[in-house]
Amino acid sequence: MTLTAPTSAPAITDDEVAAIDAWWRANNYLTIGQIYLQDNPLLRRELTSDDIKPRLLGHWGTSPGLSFIYAHVSRLIQHTGQETIYLTGPGHGGPALVAAGYLEGTYTEVYPNITQDEAGIKKLFRQFSAPGGIPSHVSVTTPGSIHEGGELGYVLVHAFGTVMDNPDLLTIAVVGDGEAETGPLEGSWKGVSFINAARDGAVLPILHLNGYKIAGPTVLGRKDPALTRSLLEGHGYDVIEVEGDDVPGMHHRFSEALLEAYGKIKEIQRAARGDGGGGDEPKWPMIILRTPKGWTGPEEIDGVKVTGSWHSHQVPLSGVKGNPEHLAVLQTWLKSYRPEELFDASGAPVELVTRANPRGDQRLSASPHANGGLLTEDLDIPDFRDYAVELTNPGTAVESVRRLGELTAELYRRNPHSFRLFCPDETNSNRLGAVFEVSDRAFMERLIPADTKISHEGRVMEVLSEHNCHGWLEGYTLTGRHGMFATYESFAMVSASQTIQHSKWLEEANHLPWRAKVPSLNILLTSTCWRNDHNGFSHQGPGLIQNVITQRAEVSRVYLPPDANTLLSVADHCFRSRSYVNLIVIDKQPQQQWLTMDEAIKHCTAGAGIWTWAGNDDFVTDPDIVLASAGDVVTMETVAAAQILKEKLPGLKVRVVNVVDLMTLPRPQDHPHGISDTFFRELFTDHVDVVFSFHGFPGAVHQLVHGRPDADRFHVRGFIEEGTTTTPFDMVVKNKASRYHLVMDAINNAKRTPVGASELKAWCQEQLAKHESYVVEHLQDMPQVRDWTWQRG
């Protein structure tokens, strides 16, 4: 592997400083205009109150620093041709990045109505943070962005994900000093310990310390600079520092720092990619940039310090529309950038400004890496049928996830540069360890002989951080590659907000025709709430299902495969999909297998189906009761309950329905996977009561079937926050979802009560009482439960 860009650039010249400064002034002008102006965009006349928006929204304080860095990175690209993307942790700098795309011309290319003239600038201003317009953050609508920044803490994890298996990419990751206080960001500095310079690209973190957040100082902004430097050096970085507010000098100093950092990155990559490979593990460079908050804005307003204080964070002149003195300050502020030098008579940026832009796809706002679907290639996926469980002995217990692990290993073999597994130190525990037959764990720190399946060349990503793993996968998929994030079910709530934010990104991207579809975010949850017997109540929580189903139907997918063959069929579909959040929930423990592979494919294709072999429905008339399930453990309880009813109450007609695709339950108008009304009636009838045994919180099913015929007839058993360190069956008993509870529910809600029903209910109560005393005395479940198997036919 060779380097594809020059390893250095010349020192900045005075002519280049003039162009960069003109571009920066133009960007600052457009940034302020977006926050304040609805008319008179180029100050062709004196400002009036009518020129000011009725609502002033946006953030000024971080914006000038972001555009300053942007301008200098563009100059580096011009000289080197380096493939680069720019991620802004301070997402509040949205207007600065929108302005940058506009000055580069990309904005007009993707939004032709925002023209490069005075009328276009007026539209640019009016749309910002306004109804029918665009958000105030660096959102999905911003060309060149894959990271909004509105939810602070994730810029570095996204950045490191972008460069994995992406050797020619440089990702600039600006970390705000407010963001630097968050837990996820503090943990994400460790990403440098997982980047292999021989095969991965590089992240250049720029810690932008302007000293303040929304209403006060920041920790790193006030900390002794020597301590801040030591902190980052302790993480393994080679720290370069730049500080000041003198504009000409800062242009020169920051340019020198950026060239120094770039040269060090290229030297690290040259050493790693040379014939002899790398030597000692590198210390990657990073930059600490200290500038005043609200740099170049008003120094004081009404005697209150603004620039260099938290007062510049949002809208420094918030009452300008009704305050003539503030209006005059705003006009002076805007004119300080000398817009007449920056825009021609038509309102287009002048040549001195556009001279600072790279060309074509080299523009930061036009990089295909920031529109990763343009670069996506389909995975080479093996035939999942090759990993099927043969049902020669249906009672055999199988760790279903191991079969997925074998398929995942083959994905590693066939896709050595475009597929990765991300897992918080649980790959083996999650039964996915077959991947280690193909690749070690990635780790760039010191290795010792006792290490197992750990190497500098490894590509399996393990770090004890859901935030890192989730964020790495997001950056990986948004730049066009494929992967899966696997974790214990309860730990998924640690990164649940990331799942939600990624869903929102995909939802909005679907409405932008210029955004190409990207590989889906695939999440596998194991060690589920029902079988976390050794960890106990703290590890028993199915909440991520609830989060995903509340996202828009166009992106949300939830699968609850009950066995190995359905898991394989679902996984194949998810790996091939685009721009979804696919949540797959299945336990890692040995479990009974229900369907042949052909049956599993048919079942997963439909999303739900009647298991005729489990019930005694004659399908001539409606059944007396429907037993439904979604989830592996609860499916076993449902099938066991059906067997009890068939054996002890044969006069009761029972239909058994299993749902593998949870999103088939809503109406078709509410979700694209929603089954038709006809199919829904075929499964559940339109008036027979349904005892629904669900993996997660019962309210989720009620939410999903809302609007279906007589939805109140659905009686849901699920996780009700009852748990402890106990036996597997005791977990379903504590949550009132055991086979005995289901039998009693069936009797209580059946449309008729056959002879023997009362006796069967009493028997169920007796079994529950026996269970309660048995588990305490014997520390395991009763034999009739522990050894129960279902024999088909």
What key attributes describe this structure?
793 residues, alpha/beta, Rossmann fold, 5-stranded parallel β-sheet, 22 strands, Xul5P/Fru6P_PKetolase, lyase, thiamine pyrophosphate
Structural account:
Belongs to the XFP family. Keywords: Lyase, Thiamine pyrophosphate. This is Phosphoketolase family protein. InterPro entries: THDP-binding (IPR029061), Transketo_C/PFOR_II (IPR009014), Xul5P/Fru6P_PKetolase (IPR005593), Xul5P/Fru6P_PKetolase_C (IPR018969), Xul5P/Fru6P_PKetolase_CS (IPR019790), Xul5P/Fru6P_PKetolase_N (IPR018970), Xul5P/Fru6P_PKetolase_ThDP_BS (IPR019789). With 793 residues, this protein is α/β, with parallel strands linked by helices. The chain has three domains: 354 residues, Rossmann fold; 208 residues, Thiamin diphosphate (ThDP)-binding fold, Pyr/PP domains (Rossmann fold); 179 residues, 3-Layer(aba) Sandwich (Rossmann fold), CATH 3.40.50. Helix content is 37%, strand content 12%. The protein has 26 helices and 22 strands. The strands form six sheets. Strands 12-9-13-14-16-15 form a six-stranded parallel beta sheet, with helices on both faces. It has a five-stranded parallel beta sheet with strand order 1-2-3-5-4, sandwiched between helices. Strand 2, helix 7 and strand 3 form a beta-alpha-beta unit. The longest helix is centred in the first third of the chain and has 27 residues. The two termini are 59 Å apart. The model has no long low-confidence stretch (mean pLDDT 95).
